[in-house]
Amino acid sequence: MGSLLCPSLVLLFSLWVTLISPAHSLDCSSLKLPGGKKQYSNCTDLPTLNSTLHFTYNATNSSLSVAFSAAPSNANGWIAWAINPTSTGMAGSQALLAFKNKGSMVVKTYNISSYSSIVEGKLSFEVWDLEAEAGDDGKMVIYGSLKVPASAEKLNQVWQVGPGVTNGHPMKHEFAKANLASLGELNLVEKMSSGASSPAPAPQVANNGSGDGSRVREINAGLWILGLVSMLVLM
What we know:
Helices cover about 20% and strands about 35% of the residues. By secondary structure, the protein is an alpha+beta fold. It has a six-stranded antiparallel beta sheet with strand order 7-6-5-4-10-13, with no helix packed on it.
């Protein structure tokens, strides 16, 4: 009995570690934003460049509040998040771009009319409450709010990171696979089975916490499963 029990306990311990490991339990909803002063209803892990987007869509006044987080390709680089009102790529996108300027984080707006014309300027829609912060983990965060078309259900978004800034102008980003694939749709509302729409779901509120509540729940679930299987093995 003892020879069978030891391997079983080792297997059960491995299962428990897997259930509570950070890689398994953490996602964008547990990301701690550096400022710790804003809350968002939704978050999504973007598929490239190790970036995330927290957002709240207010259908009443057609506004979108966002917090885009990513690490620049170099310590003195830049990050950017954009909406493209007319297409799906970079050309035509309306970008919020952040970088360090003389030690302080700044956010600038760029109306990217073409791939050869990246000029700082006013966007085609209203934006406000723009600010940026840098975290100890090397990531930067862009905060802002913007006006979106009335009754919008989805937007074309683009995001990017770059290596540096020269005389206040962002240097070109890399053209690796991850950089070229940094675009997609942002769903503002969720389609219901009846065809009606509701605001995009909020798996957890993304705030200045570190996701401890969901983490505790997952640990408790892991312990419960471990205890149940242990009882079955010992019977």
